[in-house]
Amino acid sequence: MFPVARAALNLTARGIQHTAVRQAHRKYEPNFHDKYGNLVLLGGAAVFTAVWGYVFTQAGIEWGLSPVGRITPKEWRE
Fold first, then answer.
1. CATH fold of 1-57, please?
2. How far apart are CA 48 and CA 56, in angstroms?
3. Exposed end of the chain (fewer CB within 10 Å): N or C?
4. What are the transmembrane regions (predicted)?
5. pTM, entire model
């Protein structure tokens, strides 16, 4: 079984080497992320900022972050 496994690994490694050599000789072509990645990132950041800016300023949500005046002590029960 060991020679079969070694042969299989050798074929796998050889296939990876051939693929690497083939890709090294190809001319680099920019993909979608290279072309539009920064634009998509900036667009997402703008939408994120706009939505949360609206929520914080216009939605009228009372956040109630301070517990002052909301917590009242109760009588101790014996």
1. Cytochrome C Oxidase; Chain K (4.10.51)
2. 12
3. C
4. 36-55
5. 0.45
